């Protein structure tokens, strides 16, 4: 009889986020953007914290676009509950993000302000990110 394969990761049934992003991988609205370098689940609270950090640094100048939306419900059962009795209640909402996906976009601010605002926003996220600039951006 074959033994089941034991893996290091416990979340095997939840699904893995593999591959690179095929959509949302170029700047659509802004001149500066924040691009992911790895795959992960990003929660609604993390998105909101990064939005607040970026807009506070920009002092509400310029425009900010959030290109992801948390539409996946993550459920949990309470502690010390027996097996069965149905699915647990929704604990939080999240979005699965692949590598190469653009999370945030900024326009109508200078390069230095955009770089620092997106750096502050990236510290609130659980993924490694990269600051990108549009091809048609001219430095004065």
UniProtKB/TrEMBL annotation:
Keywords of this entry: Ribonucleoprotein, Ribosomal protein, RNA-binding, rRNA-binding, tRNA-binding
Molecular function as annotated in GO: rRNA binding; structural constituent of ribosome; tRNA binding
GO BP of this protein: translation
Superkingdom classification of source: Bacteria
Cited InterPro entries: Ribosomal_uL16, Ribosomal_uL16_bact-type, Ribosomal_uL16_CS, Ribosomal_uL16_dom, Ribosomal_uL16_sf
SUPFAM superfamilies: Ribosomal protein L16p/L10e
Keyword hit for Kinase: no
PROSITE patterns membership: RIBOSOMAL_L16_1 (PS00586), RIBOSOMAL_L16_2 (PS00701)
GO CC terms: cytosolic large ribosomal subunit
UniProt record similarity statement: Belongs to the universal ribosomal protein uL16 family.
Function (record text): Binds 23S rRNA and is also seen to make contacts with the A and possibly P site tRNAs.
Oligomeric and partner information: Part of the 50S ribosomal subunit.
Name the UniProt record assigns to this protein: Large ribosomal subunit protein uL16
Source organism (scientific name): Candidatus Walczuchella monophlebidarum
